[in-house]
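Exercise 7b. Backbone tokens:
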């Protein structure tokens, strides 16, 4: 027969173990899931020459050549960007040469996942005869007109917004299955559109979407 005092000690020990186990289980339940992080990177400088000024036909040709251009071999990602994505085993890109080349340069050992869904929001050259302007001015004018409804034979703003939502979903799914982080090396304007989707979903932004090659913006769950 076990003495009553020993029984009491055993009961207290069992209760202590049970309480400790319950507390650990509650702590696991209460701990939030790993916060997701999405890194949006603009591609490096394309290997393309540009005239000082050109007419609308020249800008149309420039758009076509820009789409086909790969990465300028002299364009390298900055060290701080390399450190930011270090250790990631996958990188998303669009199918454009400048995007895929940039993705391989930034993360040469990672799996490269090229998807047309990440293509740049398109531009069309406004038909303005006799006018010659620098490329950045043409680009700004074309983007304004695109938002205003000028989209001859190209994707319009409404469809691009839907595509940005789908792109955000893909990146979030990747982050959930990849230690909480996903990186996209794609295009400046469409990256910003994805960023707006992420902001609406409660993500906090670090950095700004600038017209600068290798520009990186991070979105983190609060």
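Sequence design result:
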């Amino acid at each position: 027969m076990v003495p009553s005092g020993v029984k009491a000690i055993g009961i207290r020990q069992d209760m202590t173990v049970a309480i400790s186990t319950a507390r650990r289980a509650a702590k696991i339940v209460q701990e939030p899931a790993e916060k997701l992080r999405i890194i949006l990177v603009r591609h490096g400088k394309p290997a393309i020459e540009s005239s000082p000024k050109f007419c609308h036909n020249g800008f149309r040709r420039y758009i076509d050549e820009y789409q086909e251009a790969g990465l300028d071999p002299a364009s390298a990602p900055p060290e701080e960007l390399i450190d930011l994505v270090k250790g990631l085993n996958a990188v998303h890109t669009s199918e454009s040469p400048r995007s895929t080349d940039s993705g391989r340069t930034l993360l040469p050992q990672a799996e490269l996942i090229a998807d047309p869904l990440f293509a740049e929001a398109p531009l069309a050259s406004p038909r303005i005869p006799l006018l010659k302007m620098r490329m950045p001015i043409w680009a700004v004018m074309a983007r304004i007109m695109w938002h205003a409804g000028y989209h001859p034979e190209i994707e319009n703003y409404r469809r691009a917004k839907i595509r940005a939502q789908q792109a955000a979903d893909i990146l979030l799914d990747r982050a959930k299955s990849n230690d909480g982080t996903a990186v996209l090396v794609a295009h400046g304007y469409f990256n910003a559109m994805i960023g707006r989707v992420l902001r609406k979903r409660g993500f906090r932004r670090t950095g700004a979407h600038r017209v600068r090659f290798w520009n990186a913006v991070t979105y983190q769950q609060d």
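Instructor comment: The two ends are 59 Å apart (CA to CA). Residues 1-31 form one domain.
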